[in-house]
Amino acid sequence: MSASSLRNATGIMLAGSDALVGSLPSLLDPLCEADRRRVLAIGREEVLPTGKHVWRQGDLQNGIYLIEEGRIRSYYAAPSGREVTLAYWFAGNFVGGPDLFGTGAHVWSSVAVERSRVTFLPGPALRALALQSASIAVALLDALAFKARCYSAMAQMLGTRSVTERLHRLLVFLSKIYGSQQGREIVIGIPFTHGDLANLIGSTRQWVTVQLSRMQARGVIRYHRGLIVILNLRALDLEVV
């Protein structure tokens, strides 16, 4: 997948419907030029190297971060140390909710999985802008509603689908949203380790390794060094109906 198409992508998460988590315009896109400048005027640009946390679970919230470039992973860490990936977010999205104006503690962590450029918008200043401009307030509400739909879809999948169904659904989602058709094959343009996939579906790396090997033996996928190629999308679709 090209860099330009990734910039228009919504993110990567577990969801039962592609339409539910379709691409979302940037938080700034619906705003007029004057409101866009007002939002950016309160911002502070930061560059995050790979592996740098935007914040950690339990840190106090103080605002949101607009993603300009790169990829941010949001995840929850259980007391046991096990992690569940909530989503990977790309340029155009923000991280830092649900408390947009920053008064409570973060209930999950966010980390840069590749070099990323973000713009920090402090909560008190953002709240003041929302009170002054209805268009800014509505844009924030729309973005927050989109995040709520994403996390609701994830909760529904975790609560109602088997782990096998969740893995197949994730592969279907990745192929349709991030896949590139190359002949009869669909190449998913973002590399994933077995651990990445396991964290997205609430499973273990060992289980995912076994399942991918079985699907590869059946000619459904090909997996090599993080690159997933879908050879038989229909087989995956039939198993998630």
UniProtKB/TrEMBL annotation:
SMART domains tied to this protein: cNMP, HTH_CRP
* Keyword terms: DNA-binding, Transcription, Transcription regulation
- Database matches in Pfam families: cNMP_binding (PF00027), HTH_Crp_2 (PF13545)
Q: Which residues form the HTH crp-type domain?
A: 161-234
> Which InterPro entries does this one have?
cNMP-bd_dom (IPR000595), cNMP-bd_dom_sf (IPR018490), Env_Response_Regulators (IPR050397), HTH_CRP (IPR012318), RmlC-like_jellyroll (IPR014710), WH_DNA-bd_sf (IPR036390)
- Source organism, top-level taxon: Bacteria
Domain Cyclic nucleotide-binding stretches: 27-96
- CDD domains, sorted: CAP_ED (cd00038)
Put simply, this protein is called Crp/Fnr family transcriptional regulator
